[in-house]
Write a structure and sequence with these properties.
The protein has 159 residues and is mostly beta strands. The chain has one domain: Gamma-adaptin ear (GAE) domain (Immunoglobulin-like). Helix content is 5%, strand content 55%. The model has no long low-confidence stretch (mean pLDDT 90).
């Protein structure tokens, strides 16, 4: 079975706040946003006829020194699966999640949310993330699909 490499570009808007005194009303409105408009980080990874996976948020817990990833996943297959994570690479740091318990999804499931975390401080930003994901048959533990999601952050200055 061939590992599926999925390259994802995450575009993050930035603003030159040193020029705030010259911003137009429209620029202020974009920067402030709508009250319901803050969706945070959402990064679609895959959505095909078998599997759906999306990063729904990334946040830091300063007390535990963990970087949390919120995921939404859906099993579209007619059999139960386990989502098993391998190595994660965040910039130059590598984290092995292969010893952690897989996340179980029943066959033809609804979209379900869950979290994974790695030890990392809030002061460490990220530019690239690589996440290895294996889909396993829940009964036989046989590999169904193997992914490597390569997420590159690109900063775009809006104004």
């Amino acid at each position: 079975m061939t590992k599926e490499i999925v390259a994802v570009e995450f575009i993050m808007k930035t603003y030159d706040t040193s020029k705030m005194d010259m911003w137009s009303k429209e620029q202020w409105n974009e920067w402030v946003g709508e009250p319901d408009g803050n969706t945070g980080i959402q990064i679609p990874l895959i959505n095909d006829n078998e599997f759906y996976l999306k990063v729904m948020g990334i946040y830091y817990n300063e007390e535990t020194k963990e970087m949390f990833f919120g995921f939404d996943a859906q099993n579209k297959l007619d059999r139960n699966i386990n989502i098993h994570y391998g190595d994660w690479k965040i910039d130059e740091s590598t984290f092995n999640l292969s010893c952690e318990k897989p996340y179980h999804l029943k066959k033809c499931s609804e979209v379900r949310g869950y979290q994974k975390s790695v030890e990392r401080t809030h002061l460490e930003s990220w530019d690239s993330i690589i996440i290895e994901v294996n889909l396993l048959d829940a009964e036989t533990n046989l590999l169904i699909r193997e992914f490597e999601f390569q997420i590159e952050k690109r900063l775009v200055q809006v104004f």
